[in-house]
């Protein structure tokens, strides 16, 4: 029992660590969107068919009434030669019919053929409901589809209350990770990382100094050995003869030590005036610290955003048949979470690739918001660094 309890505790601890990691939060967001697709499909799909029947029941009497009005106007004007009055009356009837049809919302579908081959396609399919879930938790909210049932709207509120903070947490974490990765790549590629390696092995030219005296054993000429420097000290003789005083003093010399000094002198002679390599054994922690200090220019981050928007514009232009400006407009409005809803993908329900396009569009939106979060983090670091630099130059901030 004890070992089983420890295993369960260890398993629970591992699961919790995974869920609160960056990968775990991303998995939770994906599963949350998938679950939202199933929930809203279950709540709204059947209601979509019921709405079709209700709007058709309102449309058919209005259509019959419009036909009767047109018939009466034409019959009454049979003996009238002025056709302009007839045209005005007919136009008025048709405009009223048009406005009422728009207000009802009936699209002329055969309601009994929903879900059948050749019949109308559900807007609240799993793909459409999943795409709606993404727009809810990302706060985009196109408005092209919206829940109509009581429970659908109530669940949408609860779904947004839980999903929006989760989405923001995921974007913040992923943005920081991507910012570190992008900063590392920028420091290695754009900041000439190889230059820092060259600085570790600096070439220093050692020039001979005129002020410093050369060692006494630089050349091979014999030099007198001062007494007292090597061997024992010899007391000077008093009243010694002149010829005896002029003789060199024989002092025992430690030849081993002298040989060592000669080797050092010879080595000094070889090294003097030649380039010297100084190896800077700096730790990797210093390099990591320097990489964290690197800031990415605003122009680079703006180019990343523009490139992602341009790539999405090309993609949606091929899918939806939009021009470049309309596609770029949609990408910007979407990634900035403005979401006007005037331009939305996936509205062509006759397209067999519509479901795949909606899933890929959801991935583009989620990843694009993470890219924007990364760019905002890099821009924030760059602006703070520039402000500190200006403050240091002005004397407002003390140099570290």
Automatic annotation (TrEMBL):
Residues 277-289 have a biased composition (Acidic residues). InterPro entries: 2pore_dom_K_chnl, K_chnl_dom. Its main location: membrane. Residues 122-178, 304-382 form the Potassium channel domain. Residues 209-223 have a biased composition (Basic and acidic residues). Keywords: Ion channel, Ion transport, Membrane, Transmembrane, Transmembrane helix, Transport. One of its GO terms (biological process) is stabilization of membrane potential. It comes from the Eukaryota. Residues 206-237, 264-290 are annotated as: Disordered. PANTHER family: FI03418P, POTASSIUM CHANNEL, SUBFAMILY K. Belongs to the two pore domain potassium channel (TC 1.A.1.8) family. This is Potassium channel domain-containing protein. The lineage of its organism: Eukaryota, Metazoa, Spiralia, Lophotrochozoa, Mollusca.
